[in-house]
């Protein structure tokens, strides 16, 4: 599913992994939130029961929701049924397609262990995307979701997505007044002190002061 | 949502076919109970069933045009346990078969009474098959409506009124056609069908207006806060990830201006309800009955196409929250 007219007047294309940008708040108290979204591989996927041919299914073993392209009749009912808009129609093959969680990559034995992750997770330069087993309580992703309050999107519809989002983190530093002012500075000035005579004992390391 | 003409044709055509069959069978029941003059098997019941079957078949043909792989459509009966679309694909051929069987029973004259109810009401084979076909027709109305009403988060559609509207609008259009059909073949039941077409049209007006009012006051459960999980009162989208369109920007939105939407709404409200009723009343007076009643049907059908278009445009899919602006 490549792009159509990529360099022409009306480009259009497929974007199973959408990174969107939202601005939260009003200037000057704004924050830019970059929001990547692919199929959330829900535990109660609304796209699976509505498919009339059974082409849309959720795998028992790993919970990945996939489309069987040989059975799909392209009626688009599953794309109506997904509240997140994860499914798209392939105009050439006339079937529905979606993020497959790189199911061919993650089980590929010819790749080294560290590369058996979805392409989007490998591509992220800031390691914002993490891949793991949400049902394994010791996995990295489970631990992060538990400890950082990971949330699901649109929980009101009961789809129980497997993909969780970790909340934004802000680094806060509490600076106390007396940290700005050295208590052992007799002159109460942050400037250089006069060089003490060589015999005077001082707590300061004169080489630090100078 | 984006209205697809193939689905508009499908639902309106099968609605007409189902309504017409219900009208014809109702006429037969009334004439069995001696409330209406009995009609000729071949020129009325058989021909009427053939017409109903024709509309159902035309709807079925139209539906194939919204599929990417129509030749695989036979698979779509397999998920009847979970999918309303699958159930509809099963019940539609059954309904068509039963209506055809009903018509064939009349055509071949297999209408000798088999037994008698309460010593006065004769029941023949066509009555029994007609009863089964009636059950199938209502099941088909329900399945068609539930395809849309079962989507929880399309709040405009997720309501029993959706199914009720399908039944009443299909019934109204079918009875209007029955009035025109009976005028055309010279049957003396035109007044009966005009009366019930008007009653059903009024009922459909009440239920469709109820759903329009409900949708106007609807509060959507999803908003940007739940969609991206950031709990702040002011969120604005700055980028969608691409500036070109995609499936998500085309298929879930009707693409027309709000004014056009309002025009379509006013159009269907006028074409489906008052105009056909007036034409039917005029037809019942006996002057140019055939042309007036058939015109009423054509106008009501065109109005129904607009109503179905509006029904699809009304549905606001929550995925549109992710595609608000390109900035």
Question: Quick gist of this model?
Answer:
Chain A is an alpha+beta fold. Chain A contains 6 helices and 6 strands. Chain A has helices at residues 77-81, 103-106, 119-123, 140-148, 177-180, 206-209, and strands at residues 18-24, 31-37, 56-58, 65-67, 88-90, 95-97.
Task: Tell me what the structure shows.
The complex is a heterodimer of chains A (210) and B (327). Chain A is α+β, with helices and mostly antiparallel strands and 210 residues long. Chain A has helices spanning 77-81, 103-106, 119-123, 140-148, 177-180, 206-209, and strands at residues 18-24, 31-37, 56-58, 65-67, 88-90, 95-97. In chain A, a hairpin with a 6-residue loop joins strand 3 (56-58) and strand 4 (65-67). The mean pLDDT of chain A is 88. Chain B has eleven helices and three strands, in the order H-H-H-E-E-H-H-H-H-E-H-H-H-H. Chain B has helices at residues 5-32, 41-64, 84-107, 125-149, 160-184, 190-216, 224-228, 247-250, 258-272, 274-284, 289-314, and strands at residues 113-117, 121-124, 235-239. Chain B has a two-stranded antiparallel ribbon. In chain B, helix 6 runs antiparallel to helix 10 (274-284) and helix 9 packs antiparallel against helix 11 (289-314). The longest helix of chain B has 28 residues, at 5-32. Chain B starts with a helix and ends in a 13-residue tail after the last helix. The mean pLDDT of chain B is 92. The chains are: A alpha+beta (210), B mainly alpha (327). At the A-B interface, strand 1, strand 2 and helix 1 of A face helix 3, helix 7 and strand 3 of B.
């Amino acid at each position: 599913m490549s792009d159509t007219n990529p360099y022409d007047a009306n480009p259009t294309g497929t974007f199973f992994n959408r990174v969107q940008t939202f601005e939260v708040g009003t200037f000057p108290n704004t924050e830019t939130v970059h929001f990547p979204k692919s199929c959330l591989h829900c535990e109660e996927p609304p796209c699976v029961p509505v498919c009339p041919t059974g082409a849309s299914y959720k795998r028992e073993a790993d919970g990945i929701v996939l489309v069987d392209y040989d059975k799909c009749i392209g009626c688009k009912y599953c794309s109506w049924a997904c509240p997140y808009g994860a499914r798209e129609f392939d105009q050439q093959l006339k079937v529905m397609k979606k993020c497959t969680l790189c199911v061919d990559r993650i089980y590929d034995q010819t790749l080294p262990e560290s590369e058996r992750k979805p392409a989007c997770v490998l591509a992220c330069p800031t390691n914002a995307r993490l891949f793991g087993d949400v049902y394994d309580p010791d996995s990295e992703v489970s631990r992060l979701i538990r400890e950082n309050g990971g949330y699901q999107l649109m929980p009101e519809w009961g789809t129980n997505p497997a993909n969780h989002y970790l909340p934004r983190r802000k680094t806060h530093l509490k600076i106390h007044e007396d940290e700005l002012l050295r208590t052992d500075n007799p002159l109460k000035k942050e400037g250089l002190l006069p060089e003490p005579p060589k015999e005077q004992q001082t707590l300061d390391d004169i080489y630090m002061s100078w | 949502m984006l209205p697809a003409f193939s689905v508009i044709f499908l639902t309106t055509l099968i609605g007409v076919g189902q309504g017409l069959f219900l009208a014809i069978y109702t006429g037969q029941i009334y004439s069995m109970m001696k409330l209406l003059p009995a009609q000729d098997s071949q020129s009325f019941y058989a021909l009427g069933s053939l017409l109903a079957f024709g509309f159902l078949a035309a709807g079925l043909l139209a539906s194939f045009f919204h599929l990417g792989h129509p030749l695989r459509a036979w698979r779509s009966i397999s998920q009847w346990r979970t999918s309303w679309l699958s159930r509809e694909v099963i019940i539609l051929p059954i309904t068509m078969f039963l209506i055809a069987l009903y018509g064939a029973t009349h055509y071949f004259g297999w209408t000798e009474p088999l037994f008698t109810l309460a010593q006065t009401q004769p029941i023949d084979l066509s009555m029994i098959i007609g009863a089964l076909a009636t059950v199938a027709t209502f099941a088909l109305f329900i399945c068609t409506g539930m395809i849309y009403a079962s989507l929880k988060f399309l709040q405009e559609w997720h309501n029993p009124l959706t199914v009720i509207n399908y039944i009443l609008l299909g019934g109204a259009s079918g009875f209007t056609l029955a009035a025109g059909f009976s005028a055309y073949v010279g049957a003396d039941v035109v007044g009966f069908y005009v009366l019930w077409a008007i009653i059903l049209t009024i009922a459909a007006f009440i239920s469709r207006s109820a759903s329009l009012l409900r949708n106007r006051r609807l509060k959507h459960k999803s908003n940007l806060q739940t969609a991206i999980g950031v709990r702040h009162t002011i969120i604005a989208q700055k980028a969608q990830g691409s500036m070109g369109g995609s499936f998500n920007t085309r298929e879930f939105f009707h693409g027309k201006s709000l004014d056009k939407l309002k025009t379509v709404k006013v159009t269907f409200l006028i074409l489906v309800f008052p105009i056909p009723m007036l034409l039917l009343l005029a037809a019942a007076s006996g002057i140019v009955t055939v042309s007036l009643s058939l015109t009423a049907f054509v106008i009501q059908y065109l109005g129904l196409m607009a109503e179905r278009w509006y029904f699809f445009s009304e549905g606001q899919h929550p995925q549109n929250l992710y595609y608000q602006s390109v900035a």
